[in-house]
Design a protein that fits this description.
The complex is a heterodimer. By secondary structure, chain A is mainly alpha-helical. Helices cover 75% and strands 0% of the residues of chain A. Chain A contains 13 helices and no strands. By secondary structure, chain B is mainly α. Chain B has 2 domains: 77 residues, no CATH class; 167 residues, MetI-like (MetI-like fold, Orthogonal Bundle). In chain B, 69% of the residues lie in helices and 0% in strands. In chain B, α3 runs parallel beside α7 and α11 runs antiparallel to α12. The longest helix of chain B is centred in the first third of the chain and has 34 residues. Chain B is globular, with a radius of gyration of 24 Å. Chain B starts with 9 loop residues before the first helix and ends in a 13-residue tail after the last helix. The N terminus of chain B is likely disordered. Classes of the chains: A mainly alpha, B mainly alpha. At the A-B interface, α1, α4, α5, α6 and α7 of A face α1, α3, α4, α5 and α7 of B. Chain A: Its main location: membrane. Chain A: This is Binding-protein-dependent transport system inner membrane protein. Chain A: One of its GO terms (cellular component) is plasma membrane. Chain A: InterPro entries: BP-dep_ABC_trans_perm, MetI-like, MetI-like_sf.
Chain lengths: 276, 294
């Protein structure tokens, strides 16, 4: 009796999970399918499940419009700001994790609050400052902005990773004749390498997806992919096929990164508070 | 134990570049914001007279501000509560299943990592009244087609729905990590004491999970307050102003009407709201494990 009841419950649970998974994956699949459709199929009022697939939308946005350039801009800005955030973030995280610094706890809490303040409050001043010093529509402004936005995450994640490295390892390196810098690069660095990579990949995702600042700081010269995406959504017509193709291209790198990181994402998404 | 005592300025030199960026980008905008919130500040006019508290007085009389405050509150409350409830339910079920762990984890991570701009446009496409697939499904179930995003009573629910799609997986993933961390012993003890499934959930799962629940709710509230990208792509604050959140009107006043001074005043109020929320939870911030261990 109870065994068969248990079976029913298990089957029911699997059904619920499958429905939920279909719900979460469907919009992505639908976007991908739409990106392969011609204009007529995309706008059909009855969804076309079977259709003649075409790469026209991709060809259009990559070769006849500038989307390839926007992707490259995004890549450049995200990559550079990620490297900077990790580099500068290590500089902050390492001393706080290793030395007993005065007010260390307060500084770390302050850095955490920077993650909490809504970015919209700095949009107006940032825009004015960058326009006054003539840096709108430049790579530098976006790279600096994203470095700033990713620093709190990088500091907190790296702080956690540095804390996880036992003192003794470092002490023995110092005894063996390393100084602080060589100990860091030869001993600590290899140990937290995986941590650095996951912090870096997460920073990359956030910079890659960012829209608020990209929208106000970028112009015709430096346009990132999420801003360029908006070009196909004109008030006159929505080119859904091209939008879907552009959207697919934007999420491909991010999808690959999440597949690499898997459970490590949890730690990053919670500023290191939950270790997945 | 003074081995790691500070002997020189090394650590400060190493952290200086990063700290300078953090300070520059956080303190300077704040001062600037405070200053122009007392000004009639338009980026295209040469004179930017100080007008005292005019912007703030205007703010409290401005119905669009109160509307935005209300919309933001509704949006944040409903997304966080629904995502938490659905997320916890699904996480508990997922935690019991043994097959396909890796697959569902990979699926759940995708919505979280997607650009909100893409998500917004995708849902705008699916919610279209003529060719949107959501309406097709609704017709299959005997309902009639609706123009989700241009209907004043449906636009906000449509945004909430989109947010739930993207961020429920976030709740699930975090809560699932928490559930996996709960040892078996308390459950065994509860079982021996004859606790029912509900009692085991109420008196074992919830207390063991409380720290994780707190973190998940806190992070989700913070991020829900920021909603901007999806609004930009889906409704642009409309129809009329039923989806104009605080973030949206700051952008709207600033970059559409060029009323930077007024926009700054709204930002200051938003900051006050966030900071008061913060002091409310600041004690709990040690959830994020700042240790004083040298």
């Amino acid at each position: 009796m109870s065994a068969s009841k248990n079976n029913t419950v298990t089957v029911l649970q699997y059904i619920i999970v499958i429905i939920a998974m279909v719900f979460f994956i469907f919009p992505i699949v639908w976007m991908f399918l739409t990106s392969l459709k011609n204009q007529i199929d995309a706008f059909a009022s009855t969804p076309q499940w079977i259709f003649l697939a075409t790469l026209d939308n991709y060809r259009m946005i990559l070769f006849e419009r500038d989307f390839a350039l926007y992707l490259l801009n995004s890549l450049y800005v995200s990559f550079l700001s990620t490297v900077l955030a990790i580099f500068l973030g290590s500089g902050i995280a390492y001393p706080f994790a290793r030395y007993r610094l005065k007010g260390g706890k307060n500084v770390m809490t302050w850095i955490l609050t920077l993650r909490i303040v809504p970015p919209i409050v700095s949009v107006l001043p940032i825009y004015l400052v960058f326009s006054q010093i003539g840096m709108l529509d430049s790579y530098t402004s976006l790279v600096l902005m994203y470095t700033f936005m990713n620093l709190p995450l990088a500091v907190w994640l790296l702080y956690g990773f540095f804390k996880d490295v036992p003192h003794e390892i470092e002490e023995s390196a110092l005894v063996d004749g390393c100084n602080r810098f060589t100990a860091f690069f030869r001993v600590i660095f290899p140990i937290i390498g995986p941590g650095l990579v996951s912090a870096g990949l997460l920073s990359f995702i956030f910079a890659w997806n960012e829209f608020l600042f990209a929208n106000i700081l970028s112009g015709p010269h430096v346009r990132t992919a999420p801003v360029g995406l908006n070009e196909y959504a004109t008030p006159v017509s929505m080119l859904w096929g091209q939008i879907a193709a552009a959207g697919t291209l934007i999420i491909i790198p991010v999808a690959i990164i999440t597949l690499i990181l898997q459970r490590k994402m949890v730690r990053g998404l919670t500023m290191g508070a939950v270790k997945g | 134990m003074k081995k790691f005592r500070l002997q020189n300025s090394g650590p400060y030199l190493v952290m200086a570049p990063g700290m300078i960026i953090l300070l520059l980008f956080s303190i300077y905008p704040l001062i600037f914001l405070l200053k122009i919130s007392f000004q009639d500040y338009s980026p295209i006019s040469a004179v930017k007279p100080f007008v005292g508290l005019d912007n703030y007085v205007h703010l409290f009389q401005d119905r669009s501000f109160w509307n935005a405050l209300r919309i933001t509150a509704i949006f944040v409350a409903s997304t966080v509560v629904l995502e938490f409830a659905i997320g916890l339910g699904l996480a508990i079920i997922l935690n019991r299943l043994t097959v396909g762990q890796r697959i569902y984890q990979s699926i759940l991570l995708l919505p979280i990592a997607m650009a909100p701009t893409v998500v917004g446009l995708m849902f705008r496409f699916m919610m279209n009244d003529q060719y949107g697939i959501m309406n097709y499904f609704m017709e299959l179930f005997g309902m009639s087609r609706v123009a989700w995003l241009s209907n004043t009573s449906l636009a906000l629910p449509a945004l909430i729905f989109t947010d739930i799609w993207q961020w429920t997986p976030f709740m699930m993933i975090i809560l699932l990590a928490g559930l996996k961390g709960i040892p078996d012993e308390p459950y065994e003890a509860a079982n021996i004491d004859g606790a029912s499934a509900w009692q085991a959930f109420r008196y074992v799962t919830i207390p063991q999970l409380s720290k994780i629940i707190y973190i998940a709710l806190l992070l989700r509230t913070i991020d829900s307050l920021r909603i901007y990208d999806t609004i930009y792509m889906m409704t642009k604050g409309g129809p009329i102003n039923v989806t104009s959140t605080l973030s949206w009107i700051v952008y709207d006043k600033g970059f559409k009407f060029l009323e930077f001074g007024y926009g700054a005043a709204i930002c200051i109020i938003l900051l006050i709201i966030v900071v008061s929320l913060l002091t409310f939870v600041l004690k709990k911030l040690d959830l994020f494990e700042v240790e004083d261990r040298p």
